[in-house]
Design a protein that fits this description.
The complex is a heterodimer of chains A (253) and B (243). Chain A is mainly alpha-helical. Chain A contains ten helices and no strands. The chains are: A mainly alpha (253), B alpha/beta (243). Chain B: InterPro entries: AAA+_ATPase, ABC_transporter-like_ATP-bd, ABC_transporter-like_CS, P-loop_NTPase.
């Protein structure tokens, strides 16, 4: 088995045993699904205040309204859950003191860092599929019938939104590395989320990597392909920088 | 073969603390004790030897490699326990050891027997299915030692290995280290006092204020007295230089 695969296998075993990854995924998906389905149930009653909050797209009946609401809720909520994943996977080694034991091994620390990144993206992909399935079940329960091809495509983009967001959220792992703990990563995640929201509201978020996944999921045609490529490239590059930081890591503080 | 070789090794932190001009050699087949009071620089020196810190001056070779440059080569060759063991709280003692064995390059087919052997050697079998976070401090220390020793490394570096161990644990540790040194391993252990492990060393090096200030003959009488004589003489010499 290659060292890369061994690192991934060991990181996966640690993550499965700790239940943090599982709990984060389930709580994030359950939270998003509960908000969306409850909004739809209340919107069905015709409450004008709720309809005003949902906006024109969200207030639409059936699948289009539900998926528009889901997009609004899922983008920031996924980013919060993914922040926890990245920050915990990296920061726990410092918080638990186990980083000391990651020297002098057959698997390099850079490989460990890459395995953590791949694991976070993989867990996020599962999270995305879980939400898409939960929304599908919710829509069927609310009596919307089978989704049309266009609605199914939106469900598919919601599933992809999570791993896409995990790829571009790699600065969280870098911050947890440089800050030697989870809190630095979590704080960075919040700053990135707030920045994305502000830039999108100002209408200049189209090229901000953290905003690109949500804008793409909302309307793929409205986002330039180079912006998507740039967001992915920056996410991977920051992950590579994190691996180098782990490779050169000194326990000097 | 030389297990560890440090030449003119130094690293100074802000404020002046650190280690300075360390020349040290731990040969294969020898058990070497590094003794110094709290803050003498033992842990900093061990971190430099293992590549956890980069030296500002001098050089280090461990098992023939520069620890800051070596990638996976050191895995099978080195075992260490510096402050925290390779033990994740959510995994059982056995799972932690299996993980440690793989990370030290033990082939998958040999992991089970390797772990069973060390569980028996350090009397951890009855705790093998207990999660590490539920183990007592002493048993967590045994687990960390087991993880450091199970792959029979050629170089062993242990910082205060008898910490939290009960007398039975100290005896098991002493026997495990003597056995490995006899089989050719280079063993370096640190302690802030002349404990049971330090007393069985072939060589005792004394460190004070970040510098090696001398050595003690392990079989000599009044060992403790000789240790304090060395340390106090060094402290007086420093005070005179400072004045």
């Amino acid at each position: 088995m290659s060292r890369w695969l061994l690192a991934l296998r060991i990181e996966t075993a640690k993550a499965l045993a700790s239940r943090v990854v599982f709990a984060t995924a389930v709580l994030t998906v359950a939270g998003i699904a509960a908000i969306v389905i409850s909004f739809r149930a209340v919107a069905a009653s015709g409450d004008p205040q709720v309809l005003a909050k949902l906006g024109e797209a969200g207030a639409a009946p059936g699948w289009p309204g539900m998926l528009a609401t889901a997009m609004q809720v899922a983008a920031p909520a996924f980013l919060l859950g993914i922040t926890v994943l990245h920050a915990w996977l990296v920061g726990r080694e410092f918080a638990d003191g186990t980083v000391v034991a990651l020297y002098g091994l057959s698997v390099g620390r850079g490989q460990v860092a890459v395995a953590k990144f791949v694991l976070a993206v993989g867990a996020s992909a599962v999270m995305g599929v879980m939400l898409a399935v939960a929304l599908l079940a919710g829509g069927l329960l609310l009596g919307y019938g089978a989704p049309s091809g266009a609605d199914a495509a939106v469900l598919g983009r919601i599933a992809v939104l999570a791993p896409f967001s995990a790829l571009v959220a790699s600065p969280v792992a870098l911050a947890a590395t440089l800050g030697r703990g989870m809190l630095a990563g979590i704080a960075t995640g919040f700053v990135l989320l707030a920045s994305a929201q502000v830039l999108v509201v100002l209408g200049v978020g189209g090229w901000f990597p953290l905003a690109v996944p949500a804008l793409w999921a909302l309307s793929p045609d409205a986002v330039a392909l180079p912006a998507v490529a740039l967001a992915l490239a920056i996410g991977v590059a920051v992950s590579a920088i994190t691996a180098v930081a782990w490779r050169r890591l000194q326990l000097n503080r | 073969m030389t297990g560890i070789e440090a030449a003119r090794l130094g690293r100074t932190f802000a404020g002046g603390a650190g280690v300075h001009d360390i020349d040290m050699r731990v040969d294969a087949g020898s058990l070497h004790a590094l003794i110094g009071l709290n803050g003498a620089g033992k842990s900093t020196l061990m971190r430099l030897l293992l590549g956890m810190l980069a030296p500002q001056r001098g050089s280090v070779r461990i098992a023939g490699h520069d620890p800051r440059r070596a990638e996976a080569e050191l895995g099978p060759l080195v075992g260490h326990l510096i402050e925290y063991p390779l033990a994740y709280g959510e995994l059982t003692a056995r799972a932690n050891l299996e993980l440690g064995a793989r990370l030290h390059g033990v082939p998958a087919a040999e992991v089970r027997t390797t772990v069973a052997r060390v569980l028996d050697e350090l009397d951890l079998e009855r705790f093998s299915d207990v999660r590490a976070r539920r183990l007592s401090l002493g048993n967590r220390q045994r687990l960390g030692l087991a993880s450091a020793l199970q792959h029979d490394p050629r170089v062993i570096v242990l910082d205060e290995p008898s910490n939290a161990l009960d007398p039975a644990g100290v005896v098991l540790l002493r026997e495990a280290l003597v056995r490995r040194a006899r089989d050719g391993a280079a063993v370096l252990v640190s302690s802030h006092h002349l404990d049971e492990v330090a007393r069985i060393a072939d060589v005792i090096t004394v460190i004070n204020g970040g510098r090696i200030i001398g050595s003690l003959e392990p079989r000599q009488s009044e060992l403790e007295h000789a240790f304090f004589e060395l340390v106090h003489a060094d402290d007086r010499a420093r005070a005179e230089v400072a004045a």
